[in-house]
Design goal:
- One of its GO terms (molecular function) is DNA binding.
- Keywords: DNA-binding, Transcription, Transcription regulation.
- This is LysR family transcriptional regulator.
- The chain is of the alpha/beta class and 308 residues long.
- It has three domains: 86 residues, Winged helix-like DNA-binding domain superfamily/Winged helix DNA-binding domain (Arc Repressor Mutant, subunit A); 86 residues, D-Maltodextrin-Binding Protein, domain 2; 93 residues, Periplasmic binding protein-like II (D-Maltodextrin-Binding Protein, domain 2, 3-Layer(aba) Sandwich).
- It is built from ten helices and twelve strands.
- Strand 1 and strand 2 form a beta hairpin.
- The longest helix has 20 residues.
- The protein is rod-shaped, with a radius of gyration of 30 Å.
């Protein structure tokens, strides 16, 4: 077979002629002049050694060979449009897919409400799935495409990942509203003596989110280490002597429950960055690029996120 001699664009022209049965309409359908269409038809006839389309009173009639070829060519063109051409761009208005985001429970609380609002508006047929996995598994999930993005603070992002800063978070200390020993401030002595909850995704206290205290020589009385931020207010409500240091936005949400109050930390901790991470394999993927732009646009002025 002399496949190298066939201009594959001619298959698009064949498909249009088969559908329209008229040179002028077929030309208009694919954006060619009538002269260019006639020239392309002559090339098709030469390649297939058959007239393919014969003039008739109502247009063009396909020959038996054209009808036989048409079954396969129509399938090929449909497959190219669906499986190849559609991948060249991402149309959020019509796309139907599930975006998978790796994040902590704190990330769900911070990221999901505004992201869901925007995704429902801009990509109404897309859905979201949130997963939480150990840090050492994140790169593999992003590389395989099982997760599209990882959102949060990955202290030492693997070399295979791109990252983009979204916004900065500061810290506050959360205390039970029923703890009468603590007023509007928390002294260093109180902070060091009170039993604390430390949140660490790895389960190790020295990898906790508030481990920056160690740089100031503060000796913490860590009673519980947990990977779950959302357990903090419930545990403090059940055990009012416990305290925890969490990101400001999370502490603000917890304080709305009425069971805990937020106080400045005894030593001002430096803010930490929340970022989105993705694998180099999907750096140019149209859907991944669109999602990253959406998230960056939504959160770059955090906490003043768009309400639309």
């Amino acid at each position: 077979m002399h496949i190298r001699e066939l201009d594959l664009n001619l298959l698009v022209i064949f498909d249009a002629l088969l559908r329209e049965r008229n040179v002028t309409r077929a030309a208009n359908d694919i954006g060619l002049t009538q002269g260019a269409m006639s020239h392309a038809l002559n090339r098709l006839r030469l390649f297939f050694e058959d007239p393919l389309f014969i003039k008739a009173p109502n247009g063009m009639t396909p020959t038996p060979k054209a009808e036989l070829l048409g079954v396969t060519i129509t399938e090929v063109i449909a497959a190219l449009r669906e499986k190849v051409v559609s991948q060249a761009k991402f149309d959020p208005a019509t796309a139907q897919r599930t975006f998978v985001l790796s994040m902590t429970d704190m990330g769900e609380l911070v990221f999901l409400p505004p992201l869901i609002r925007r995704l429902r508006k801009l990509a109404p047929h897309c859905t979201l799935r949130s997963i939480q996995v150990p840090l050492e598994q994140i790169e593999g999930l992003l590389a395989s495409g099982e997760a599209d993005l990882a959102l949060g603070s990955i202290y030492a992002a693997p070399e295979g990942l791109f990252q983009q800063q979204l916004f900065m978070h500061t810290f506050v200390t959360v205390v039970s509203a029923r703890n009468r020993k603590v007023g509007k401030t928390l002294t260093r002595e109180q902070f060091e003596s009170m039993p604390q909850i430390a949140v660490s995704l790895t389960g190790r206290a020295n990898a906790a989110y508030d481990s920056a205290f160690d740089a100031y020589g503060i000796k913490r009385n860590i009673y519980l280490t947990t990977p779950h931020f959302l357990a903090v207010p419930l545990l403090i409500d059940a055990h009012p002597d416990l305290i925890a240091t969490v990101p400001l936005e999370l502490g603000t949400v917890f304080s709305r429950l009425g069971t805990v109050k937020i106080l400045p930390t005894p030593v001002a901790l430096p803010p930490f960055a929340l970022r989105q991470h993705w694998h180099s394999r999907f750096h140019a993927d149209a859907a991944n690029v669109w999602l990253r732009h959406l998230i960056k646009d939504t959160f770059e002025n955090y906490p003043d996120v768009p309400k639309y």
